[in-house]
UniProtKB/TrEMBL annotation:
Keyword Transport on entry: yes
Transmembrane segments: none
Single GO cellular component term: cytoplasm
Assembly and binders: Homodimer.
Species in which this protein is naturally found: Edaphobacter paludis
Gene it is expressed from: phoU
Protein's UniProt name: Phosphate-specific transport system accessory protein PhoU
Keywords assigned by UniProt, alphabetized: Cytoplasm, Phosphate transport, Transport
Primary location group: cytoplasm
Tree of life domain: Bacteria
Protein's job: Plays a role in the regulation of phosphate uptake.
Compartment(s): Cytoplasm
GO term, biological process aspect, one: phosphate ion transport
Amino-acid biosynthesis as UniProt keyword: no
Length: 221
């Protein structure tokens, strides 16, 4: 395989991963739209997107493995392919979080809509921004931008903690709101996990560009 052909395959791999990213992001956006509007028809759109996301994950993995087997790449090309495999898995799990949120929204639909002391859309906005920023770092091979994503994870964790305390207090004060509160707690946790996946993607970009692993020392420069 010529270098030109190899580079074309790398470009194809990158393009497919960005398609995967778009699908995962859309699934999260739809799940939060379903939460905000309590529109269960939007939940169905999220459920229907999952098989396509899973199928694309398998295709990307297979293409990456084929390149590893045929080309035996080294250095930055090897790190790129390894990073794509890991980012691919994180994006599939972002899609899983969207499905989990949609399941909770569907369960909440059995109860009267109630104002809860948690800003799920704001938490979703921050977690989604982390994903977009991490992917922008991937597109631009920008390790510094990826590093900045890691700092946002603390904000998502703090919002998730605040949701836990607020909803736990509400359950004690108004036990009749326990089902709605527990579902909202789990949705907040799902979004915190989206932030974790964005962090993983950012760490993989740093690994690809700089050549060292920051997974257990994320603020290393």
């Amino acid at each position: 395989m010529t270098r030109i052909k190899f580079q074309q395959n790398l470009d194809d791999l990158k393009e497919r991963l960005l398609i995967m990213a778009g699908m995962a992001e859309q699934a999260i956006q739809r799940s939060i739209e379903a939460y905000s509007s309590r529109d269960l028809s939007i939940c169905e759109l999220v459920f229907r997107s999952e098989p396509a996301i899973n199928r694309l994950e398998r295709e990307i993995d297979q293409l990456a493995l084929d390149l590893l087997a045929m080309e035996q790449p080294m250095a930055i090309d090897l790190r790129f392919i390894l990073s794509v495999i890991r980012i691919n898995a994180d994006l599939e799990r972002v899609g899983d979080q969207a499905v989990n949120i949609a399941i909770r929204v569907r369960e909440m639909g059995a109860f009267a809509n109630t104002d809860l002391p948690v800003d799920i859309p704001k938490l979703a906005s921050l977690a989604s921004a982390m994903v977009r920023k991490a992917l922008q770092a991937f597109i631009e091979a920008d390790a510094e931008l990826a590093q900045s994503v890691l700092l946002l994870d603390d904000q998502v964790d703090e919002m998730n903690d605040a949701a836990f305390y607020a909803l736990s207090s509400l359950i004690k004060e108004k036990p009749e709101l326990t089902p709605q509160s527990l579902n909202a707690l789990i949705i907040a946790r799902n979004l915190e996990r989206v932030g974790d996946h964005a962090t993983n993607i950012a760490e993989d970009v740093i690994f690809w560009v700089r050549g060292f692993d920051v997974r257990h020392n994320p603020r290393a420069d």
